Amino acid sequence: MTLLEVNDLSIRYAVDDGSAVHASDDVNFSVEPGETYGLVGESGCGKTTLAKSLVHLLDDNGYIEDGEVWFETTLPQWADENGDPKQSVIDDPDKPVRADGKTDLAQLNSKQIRDIRWRDIAIIPQSAMNALNPVYKVGDQIVEAILRHEPETTAEEAHERARDLLERVGIEPDRADDYAHQFSGGMKQRAVIAMAMACGPDLLIADEPTTALDVIIQDRILEELEALQEEFGVSILVISHDISVMAEICDRMAVMYGGKVMESGRTEEIFDATANPYTLGLKNSFPTITSKDQDLVSIPGTPPTLRDPDEGCRFRERCPFAVEECHAAHPPMYDVATADAEGRAVESTDRRAHTTACYRIDELEQIRTDAINESTWTDQTIESR
C-alpha cells in the first residue's frame, strides 16, 4: 500500500502586485513504505517548497492552490480504538479521510497538521544550525518533541530516549546537555536526524541533508540515513540538487525544473535510460568516475521566471531539441518503455512507470546521442530534427 500519494499539487507564492509565483504545477508522485524517493533539480525548481507544503511549513505568502496529499495516517480524534478512521468520519464529506485510511494533508488546518508533524512525518531542514534553538540544550529540544506527541511518557523516559537517539547517530549521550554551538557541522546534522526520529515517524523528509558538509561527512550522513531506514523501516523523501546523492541512495526519483516534473521513474532508469533533455543536461554537468575523458557541459541560459509563466514547456528556452509544439503547451508525461518498444508516445499516469515530459520521445535514441556533444548545447543555430 502506498504511504504518500501526491496528486496534481500546485503551490503558489503571492506577490504584492497581485500576481503569483508558480512554485510547483500539477506535481504527481508517490512514496511506498520503506522506500527512498528523491526530488532533484536546480535551485529554485520548487523541490523544497514541495516538501515544506506537505507539512504546512511554507512562508506566510505561500499556499496550496490545488491538489491532494494523501498520507497513511488518521488524526487521533478521528480514529477508532484500532487507529483506523471511524466510519462516521469516512462518511462525513467535510472530513478529508478515505476508506483506505489515508488523510488529505492539504485540507488540514494548522492545529490538525501539528498532530502529524514529528509523529508521522518529520523533516530534516537544509540548515541544521537554524533548526536547533541556540539557547536550549540539544537533548531538551528532542525531549520537547517526544513529550508533545507522547504525553504519557515521563520527562525522565524522554531524556533517556534522547540520549539513546544521539548515541544511535554517533554522538556521545552526554552531549545531550550541550548547546548547538558546541557541535560541529556534522554533529549538528546528526542531532537533527536524531530529533526527526524521536517519535518514530513513517516518513522522513531530508531536505539537502549533505549541504555544506565535506565529502567524508556527507558519506557518513547518507550511511546513517540508510541504516535508520533499515532498522526502523521509515520511508525517506530526499530533496537535493546533487544527482550523485540521488544515484547512491534513492530507489525512485523525479527530476524537477521550473516547478514541473520533467522525468520520473526508478533511479537506474533515470540514469541508464535517460529520457528527458533536461535530465541529460544535468548528467552532462556532473563528473563521473567511469569516463576519465569526460568534459563537463553546463546547460546554457537561466531558469525561467515562475511569476505567471506561460503555457509552454518550462525548459524550452534552454533546450536545443525544442520544437514549435513546445511553445504551445507543457508536454504531458509519456511512458518511456512504450516509446522505446513501439516508437510512439503514450501518455501515462502510472506512478511506478518511467515517464518523461517531452514531445520528442519517439526520437529518444537520437536525442541521447546528440546530448553528449558539447556543441549541441553551445551552438545556438542547431536545427531541431
Could you tell me the strand content as a percent range?
15-25%
Q: Which stretches of 5+ consecutive residues score pLDDT under 50?
A: 381-385
Shape: globular
Number of strands: 12
What is the terminal-to-terminal distance? 43 Å
User: Mean pLDDT, rounded to whole units?
Assistant: 90
Give a topology summary:
Blueprint: E1 4-14, E2 20-31, E3 36-40, H1 47-54, E4 62-72, H2 87-90, E5 102-104, H3 110-114, E6 121-124, H4 128-131, H5 138-149, H6 155-168, H7 185-196, E7 203-207, H8 215-232, E8 235-240, H9 243-249, E9 252-257, E10 260-266, H10 267-272, H11 277-284, H12 324-328, E11 334-335, H13 336-342, E12 355-356, H14 364-371, H15 374-378
Parallel strand pairs: 3-8, 3-9, 6-7, 7-8
Antiparallel strand pairs: 1-2, 1-4, 4-5, 9-10, 10-12, 11-12
Helix pairs in contact: 5-6, 5-7, 6-7, 7-8
GO biological process, one term: peptide transport
Keywords: ATP-binding, Cell membrane, Membrane, Nucleotide-binding, Transport
GO molecular function: ATP binding; ATP hydrolysis activity
Walkthrough of the structure:
The chain has about 375 residues and is of the alpha/beta class. Among the domains are: about 75-115, no CATH class; about 125-200, no CATH class; about 275-380, no CATH class. It has helices spanning about 45-55, 85-90, 110-115, 130, 140-150, 155-170, 185-195, 215-230, 245-250, 265-270, 275-285, 325-330, 335-340, 365-370, 375-380, and strands at about 5-15, 20-30, 35-40, 60-70, 100-105, 120-125, 205, 235-240, 250-255, 260-265, 335, 355. The strands form 2 sheets. The protein has an 8-stranded mixed beta sheet with strand order 6-7-8-3-9-10-12-11, sandwiched between helices. It has a 4-stranded antiparallel beta sheet with strand order 2-1-4-5, covered by helices on one side. Helix 5 (about 140-150) crosses helix 6 (about 155-170), helix 5 runs parallel beside helix 7 and helix 7 (about 185-195) runs parallel beside helix 8 (about 215-230). The longest helix has 18 residues, at about 215-230. The two termini are about 45 Å apart. It is found in: Cell membrane.
